[in-house]
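Notebook entry, structure prediction.
Reason for the run: the old model in the group folder had no record of what sequence produced it. Starting over properly, with the input documented here first.
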Amino acid sequence: MHVDRPIRRQKPISLTPLVDVIFLLLLFFMLSSTFTNFGQVEIGAPAGGGGSGTVPKAILVLDGERLRLNGRDIADEALLQSAQDLIDRDIDSLLVQVRENTTTQNLVSVMTRLRSLPGLKVTVTGSG
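New structure, fully documented this time:
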């Protein structure tokens, strides 16, 4: 005698737990992420004729993490004081020369600090 087994029907897969898991992951990543403040660097158009006609009175070279002001190494913490000393000596223009191994974040942080000093005109140039 042959007995037929009843055909077992599979239940459809419910997507409700998947949606719950995705929501919990989204909530976790939103709450655990950090938001940083991004600095801005004002970039002006170049003057006609290839330059502005004014000669900078001081040069700051950014070479990676290294800072050189008028040929002398300065510490990162001493940048504002050195720039203030320039202003005190009636030096009102500073050329920031960026070398190729300098990161954009380093340039933005230096420029943000320099822009906080009133009376100092800062110009940026690239160098290889």
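Summary: The longest strand covers residues 58-63.
The old model has been moved to the deprecated folder.
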